């Protein structure tokens, strides 16, 4: 069956079983390898992408469910040459250790910043609660999100970023 | 015009004036009498007792009782200090905000005497004489023994004092006028202190005392009348609604695929999940969180009592729980694909979760209920263990599934896992829950 999905602004018509997880389609068919397979059960957040602007677990999203809806992946935030603001903040804070969770963390955080450009600490923590990092870099990840908020406001000094 | 007619009119007018005056007097007398009934005097403040004023055993007994009463659930805002109030309680009559029951003198109950506390618990009257809304289930707390109220008072007065002023309630007119509550109480507040039933053993009686009193189980599991009071008699425990979730019947009229027993109820109440009925979700989540830490013997007693409510109903002979994969796929082919991609990883036979003793969907009560609310809420919002402890978790699907897809999936689940009639208006039900979720 043909399913047409829109990823980072581009349409893709795929001949595919509609029950296939969106994550597999992104990685295997579209070669967008940012989103990762973590638990496959919607418990870790490594596979997080945006569907119509909201963060969702792509491992538990059948591709047939998102036909015609806007999907955004970490590749849609920027590239290695031209990283987006949030990606720059993660890099500055060296928020990744092994990096496996980071694409999901970025997409989860971006959804918050899109909705609320100036979240407070409690809002950031509550929002990021669903995403896990096995290396334990949560503190750096939180700092990177605060840095992104400050960067958007034009504050560059890392001192100003800390809560 | 004839004078007689004028005279007649004048007489008529006098009669009208007379009636009006009489009516006004009667009204005034009525209002006076009502205000007389409604008036409750304030009680004087007392110096805040010190922690050392209470024996440790009394405080710890109060802690166990307060856990069973679930005081902390309503009296704590999300992310707020324990017992400092501020949690919004949506009711059919508007939104109420719970109040601060820490021993803060200005904003809590620091100046309340034991007598003032007991009056609030039994009569629903604040220390200053204002009537309290029956969202505080004083209709249940009237049943609690005096000594147990002493223990809860000791427990609350030894919590850390937190300054947190009460938020203004948002109620529909004219319910903000508290003296009206006196009328509600005249009609509905007649409960008496619990007396044990000699035809039952001590465990049952302990369970009945806790469930009917502090536990206030029927507060959600019984229907409520138009005035918001619990229906009693034959309707007691025949099921109700709580915060948009169905609270299933506990009197045996519930649709559980496999009848509950005292043992299965104990497992459910203690752990939040039971292998043949489902996981606690919605407002039941905090209840089992509390009971997971309550004295084990008390939880067993409550399970014994609740199980007895349905004991006299002969449980229908349950055939093997249904699982009609082909029939459901034929009726809702798109939903079969949704199920395979979104649900099967946990819920299909042989999935890792299913090998850990979690309930199969054909035994989950949410799929057997007359209303689809619980199933739809679980799909959209997921199931989250209360903050802190481990517990059953289900991710939310609100972002990935549209209302039409949720409706299709719910219809598929109903056909596949239940023998009961199809649900209707599923898409609208999903839209309603989603709208409520998007409120700030």
UniProtKB/TrEMBL annotation, chain A:
GO molecular function, one term: metal ion binding
UniProt xrefs under Pfam families: Fer2 (PF00111), Fer2_2 (PF01799)
Ranges in a coiled coil: none
Keywords assigned by UniProt, alphabetized: 2Fe-2S, Iron, Iron-sulfur, Metal-binding, Oxidoreductase
Keyword Transferase part of the UniProt annotation: no
Keyword Iron-sulfur recorded: yes
Every 2Fe-2S ferredoxin-type domain range: 1-77
Transmembrane segments annotated in the record for this chain: none
Domain of life: Bacteria
InterPro entries assigned: 2Fe-2S-bd, 2Fe-2S-bd_dom_sf, 2Fe-2S_ferredoxin-like_sf, 2Fe-2S_ferredoxin-type, 2Fe2S_fd_BS, Beta-grasp_dom_sf, Diverse_Oxidoreductases
Protein name: Aerobic-type carbon monoxide dehydrogenase, small subunit, CoxS/CutS family
From TrEMBL, chain B:
UniProt KW Iron keyword: yes
Pfam family, one: Cytochrom_C
Domain of life: Bacteria
Domain (Cytochrome c): residue spans on this chain: 57-160, 202-310, 330-417
Keywords attached to this entry: Cell membrane, Heme, Iron, Membrane, Metal-binding, Repeat, Signal, Transmembrane, Transmembrane helix
GO cellular component: plasma membrane
Annotated residues for binding of heme c 3: 343, 346-347
Positions of heme c 1 binding: 71, 74-75
Compartment annotation: Cell membrane
Residues that span the membrane, as ranges: 16-39
Cofactor requirement: heme c
Protein name, per record: Cytochrome c, mono-and diheme variants
Source organism per UniProt: Azospirillum oryzae
């Amino acid at each position: 069956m043909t399913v047409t999905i829109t990823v980072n602004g581009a349409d893709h018509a795929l001949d595919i079983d509609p029950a296939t997880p969106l994550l597999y389609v992104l990685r295997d068919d579209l070669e967008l390898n940012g989103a990762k397979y973590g638990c496959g059960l919607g418990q870790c957040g490594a596979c997080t992408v945006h569907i119509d602007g909201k963060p969702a677990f792509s491992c538990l999203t059948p591709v047939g469910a998102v036909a015609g809806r806007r999907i955004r992946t970490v590749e849609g935030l920027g590239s290695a040459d031209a990283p987006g603001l949030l990606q720059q903040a993660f890099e500055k804070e060296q928020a990744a250790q092994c990096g496996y969770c980071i694409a999901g963390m970025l997409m989860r955080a971006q959804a918050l910043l899109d909705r609320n450009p100036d979240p407070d600490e409690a809002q950031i923590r509550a929002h990021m609660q669903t995403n896990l990092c096995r290396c334990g870099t949560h503190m750096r990840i939180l700092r990177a999100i605060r840095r992104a908020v400050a960067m958007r406001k034009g504050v560059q000094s890392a001192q100003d970023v800390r809560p | 015009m004839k004078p007689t007619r004028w005279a007649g009119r004048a007489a008529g007018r006098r009669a009208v004036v007379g009636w009006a005056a009489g009516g006004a007097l009667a009204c005034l007398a009525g209002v006076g009498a009502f205000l007389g009934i409604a008036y409750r005097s304030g009680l004087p403040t007392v110096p805040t007792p010190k922690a050392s004023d209470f024996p440790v055993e009394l405080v710890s007994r109060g802690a166990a009782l307060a856990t069973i009463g679930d005081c902390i659930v309503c009296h704590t805002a999300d992310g707020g200090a324990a017992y400092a109030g501020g949690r919004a309680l949506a009711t059919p009559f508007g939104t109420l905000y719970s109040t601060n029951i820490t021993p803060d003198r200005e904003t809590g109950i620091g100046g309340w005497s034991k007598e003032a506390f007991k009056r609030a618990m039994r009569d629903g009257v604040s220390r200053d004489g204002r009537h309290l809304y029956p969202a505080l289930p004083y209709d249940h707390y009237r049943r609690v023994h005096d000594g147990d109220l002493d223990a809860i008072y000791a427990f609350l007065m030894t919590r850390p004092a937190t300054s947190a002023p009460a938020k203004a309630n948002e109620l529909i007119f004219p319910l903000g006028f508290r003296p009206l509550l006196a009328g509600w109480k005249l009609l509905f507040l007649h409960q008496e202190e619990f007396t044990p039933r000699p035809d039952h053993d001590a465990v049952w009686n302990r369970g009945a005392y806790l469930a009917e009193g502090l536990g206030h189980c029927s507060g959600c599991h019984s229907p409520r009348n138009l005035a918001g009071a619990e229906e009693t008699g034959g309707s007691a425990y025949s099921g109700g609604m709580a915060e948009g979730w169905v609270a299933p019947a506990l009197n045996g009229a519930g649709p559980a695929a496999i009848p509950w027993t005292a043992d299965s109820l104990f497992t459910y109440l203690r752990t939040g999940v039971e292998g043949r009925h489902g996981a606690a979700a919605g407002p039941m989540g905090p209840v089992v969180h509390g009971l997971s830490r309550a004295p084990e013997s008390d939880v067993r007693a409550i399970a014994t009592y609740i199980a007895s409510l349905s004991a006299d109903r002969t449980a229908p002979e349950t055939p093997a729980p249904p699982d009609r994969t082909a029939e459901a796929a034929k009726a809702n082919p798109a939903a079969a694909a949704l199920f395979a991609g979104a649900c099967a990883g946990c819920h299909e036979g042989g999935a890792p979760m299913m090998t850990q003793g979690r309930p199969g969907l054909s035994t989950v009560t949410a799929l057997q209920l007359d209303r689809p609310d619980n199933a739809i809420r679980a799909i959209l919002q997921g199931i989250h263990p209360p903050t802190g402890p481990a517990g059953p978790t289900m991710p939310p699907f609100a972002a990935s599934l549209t209302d039409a897809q949720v409706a299709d999936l719910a219809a598929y689940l109903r056909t596949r896992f239940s023998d009961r009639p199809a649900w209707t208006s599923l898409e609208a039900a999903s839209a309603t829950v989603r709208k409520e979720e998007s409120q700030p």
